Amino acid sequence: MQILVVSATEMEIAPFIAAQTGIEHLITGVGGPACMYHLQNHLKQGAYQLVIQAGIAGSFSNELRLGECVLVEKDVFADLGVFEHGGLKTVFDMGFANKNEWPYQDGWLLNDHPLLDDYKLKKVAAASVNGLSDDSRLTALYKNKFNAAIESMEGAAFHYTCLQQKIPFLQLRSISNRVGDRDKNNWTMKEAIQHLNDELKVLIQHSRQ
């Protein structure tokens, strides 16, 4: 099986790279636009049977432990819309786009890979944003609007690109912090990255069975 591992930064998958597994990897850069551009260009160079995005993420609640790994079953461009009167309206809410036009399903970018059903990790909904914030009001808007468990900057772009290219994919995330907490002293970055890379290795092995 030809597998491609994708990450926004080299730091997030440094142990995986150092292990020299022979599996190809791609560092896209931070943010949705960089992810979409570099991933789409790279997919032209090879025939991959599976693409795995591995990275850290913030959690909207205490239900997920710091350092815990999850698989994302659906993602959304959370800030693609209008903020007004204390609320958030998506492009679908405003009628600017059809929430069921491919690759969307009810406004979400869904993954139906079989591993989501039989792999051991929790399956969660994610919200992707262009900018991280410590504004509790903004955090509450995202949480209440989408009922997402985690937040990242590249997940929705990754789902969108793979769905459009019709390539099987998985988004693997490890929780490094609580959404809205910008105090790095409270983050478990080192542990989250180690758990992410340990789980990435197991996930790859499982996908090849």
In short:
The chain is α/β, with parallel strands linked by helices and 209 residues long. The protein is 30% helix and 28% strand. It has helices spanning 14-18, 32-43, 115-118, 136-146, 155-165, 189-207; strands at residues 3-7, 24-27, 50-59, 69-77, 81-84, 87-90, 109-110, 122-128, 150-152, 169-178.
Task: Provide tags for this entry.
single chain; 209 residues; alpha/beta; five-stranded mixed beta barrel; two-stranded antiparallel sheet; 6 helices; 10 strands; 28% strand
Order of helices and strands: EHEHEEEEEHEHEHEH
Question: What's the total helix number?
Answer: 6
Residue-averaged pLDDT = 93
Cα-atom radius of gyration? 16 Å
- CA distance, first residue to last residue: 10 Å
Residue runs with pLDDT of under 50 for 5 or more positions = none
| Neighbour order of strands in the largest sheet | 3-9-8-4-10
C-alpha geometry: globular
Tell me how many strands there are: 10
Main pleated-sheet profile: 5 strands, mixed, barrel
How is the quaternary structure best described? single chain
Q: Strand portion, in percent?
A: 25-35%
Helical/strand content category: alpha/beta
Estimated helix fraction: 25-40%
